[in-house]
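Homework help board

Subject: predicted structure for assignment chain

Our instructor gave us this sequence and asked us to write out the predicted structure in token form, then describe one feature. I got the tokens but I'm not sure how to describe them. Can anyone check?
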Amino acid sequence: MNRLARLSLIAALMSGFLVFLLTSHLERRANSPEVLIPVEGYDPRDILLGHYANIRTPLNRLDAYALEGDDGFAEGDRIWVTLETGPDGTAQPVALHTAHPGSGLVAQGRVRQVYEASRPLTRETDPETGETRTVREEPEELWIHASFNIERYYASRERAIALQNRLRLRDVTGDIGVNLILAIPADGALLIKGFEVDGERRLDTVW
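My token output:
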């Protein structure tokens, strides 16, 4: 086999592999369960880099003490988060796991940071003895910052800028009115399908 034939074969194999990856991605995106995750904002330190927008969702900051499941996480660990869809149609985290729980809508991510935070202390006076003591009305918080490969939305420069501009707008309740449309394959690796903006679905096209 001469050099040109070898190069042609390599190019064909690489093209076939890329087509396989794209086909597999599209199949997982099309045939996996779908959820809406509310967009809570964007990273003001990094408004626009290249052709993507940085976005935040409830998955990025999780209070392990307030959620069911496990809380023994360290930086770099994998984390699985069980989601449940509420009355408003959006999904919220309800439980954390160190391994896939085996059922339900589960998002797989990576722990970036773990830290404890104490809630404010209050002073309480015993009405019988008059003694004053310090009490903590609520338990401490264990915050887990995690990423799920959905924090960067790649688009054309114009579309990325338009998205960032839209994320700056909030209604009187403080809501942005923008949801991520996600596919959740069985392994929990989330895939972005598009956005829901003020109730209007805007799905991404691949071609």
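Reply (TA_rk): Your tokens look well-formed. For the description, you could write something like this. The longest strand covers residues 105-117. That's the kind of observation they're looking for.
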